[in-house]
Amino acid sequence: xxxxxxxxxxxxxxxxxxxxxxxxxxxxxxxxxxxxxxxxxxxxxxxxxxxxxxxxxxxxxxxxxxxxxxxxxxxxxxxxxxxxxxxxxxxxxxxxxxxxxxxxxxxxxxxxxxxxxxxxxxxxxxxxxxxxxxxxxxxxxxx
Length: 143
Hints:
By secondary structure, the chain is mainly beta. The chain has one helix and eight strands.
């Protein structure tokens, strides 16, 4: 890294939900947790670990400006339909070495916030989810 200006700022983050730009999104996280099993090896006192599968989870953090999530999943889930989505995250700070884009596939939201507000407080919604695949469309490499 040649300068602190190369650190990517979330100010330049963007999210799409099934090809719809989500302008009210102010934060996003997606993680792959490595699930491991113990492996005891003869002649060693230390137990090693083997990755046996991964669990992919994430969350969208949204300013409350519309009923987007209720419209997207509210009626369907009440009707017993398990909707799945594609989410694309983009982080493109103009001072960075480039932009990073990742697509999350088979996204399933974990809950739906029906109402959550407080006097003199800007509305926010957290939308946790799971997903089963991810692919980087663009990556950033330091020069």
